[in-house]
């Protein structure tokens, strides 16, 4: 076998071992005789096909922008680390700004394959590997809005809110 085929087989084995953690997928593999990794890649390909050809593109991109990050945000809230909390809070601030800006400018009608680019953008924003929300926050939001939130009164705002919540 050539090197690219070996590499692809290695990735498939790695994906299969990750998917083996889920009993539902193991049962599905036994009942259909289709490997879990092939089924997962087929679903991803179908998902991308629907987005590229705008067959439910808005619904599918909203799913990628709300449901998946929402799950990881809830997961982050149940950890003791603040790093993941900051990452997801930053994502939600950037995502909210993007959603409001998108609602003012109806780009869908002028931009071909809009939902495909929006999907890729949302993946870039949300996936920790890329940290796109952090990049946008540091390069755009801090210079634009930082002066409004670095005043002496707003620095202790979080502490005051936490104190008020404890007294209730």
TrEMBL record:
<keyword id="KW-0472">Membrane</keyword>
<dbReference type="Pfam" id="PF03134">
    <property type="entry name" value="TB2_DP1_HVA22"/>
</dbReference>
<keyword id="KW-1133">Transmembrane helix</keyword>
<protein>
    <recommendedName>
        <fullName>Protein YOP1</fullName>
    </recommendedName>
</protein>
<feature type="transmembrane region" description="Helical">
    <location>
        <begin position="117"/>
        <end position="137"/>
    </location>
</feature>
<dbReference type="InterPro" id="IPR004345">
    <property type="entry name" value="TB2_DP1_HVA22"/>
</dbReference>
<comment type="similarity">
    <text>Belongs to the DP1 family.</text>
</comment>
<keyword id="KW-0812">Transmembrane</keyword>
<feature type="transmembrane region" description="Helical">
    <location>
        <begin position="90"/>
        <end position="111"/>
    </location>
</feature>
